[in-house]
Amino acid sequence: MKELNLVLMTEEEFHIFIESEVSRYAESLCKYKGLQREEALKKAHFETQRLLPHGIKTPFHIFYRCCNWTEDVGTLWIYANEKKKQAFIYQITIFEGYQRKGYGKATLREIEKMLRKQKIDTLSLNVFYENQRAYHLYKEMGFKTVSMTMKKEL
């Protein structure tokens, strides 16, 4: 089993992370929603600002660096509301050189351990169908499909 620590991002790390996340989200909007790049970037910025009106200090949103003993192997953005006993993974990324080495499972185990201490009993996430590696990892880790969106190009 891989050793992994979740380390809170600093304000500076958060700004670098969120710019990258906006760009990644815009790419997904282009690919999966058919938006043009400019429109996708605008929507990605708007949605990110809506979700995080106070940036890294937005209540219930927590940002981590996923670290092995020597270096960062990924990033994590999670919403965790103890009062509602619910959490949602907005983003989990294992960097390319560390994929398929157990860091995804280790990150999910650390998240679960942290949430259990907070008495949170539900963890949700979204995954695109095309991301079969992630889908199978989540299934293997006990996630169940609870809804499905289907699309047809006309």
UniProtKB/TrEMBL annotation:
Pfam families: Acetyltransf_1. Residues 4-154 form the N-acetyltransferase domain. PROSITE patterns: GNAT. This is Acetyltransferase (GNAT) family protein. It comes from Priestia endophytica DSM 13796. The lineage of its organism: Bacteria, Bacillati, Bacillota, Bacilli, Bacillales.
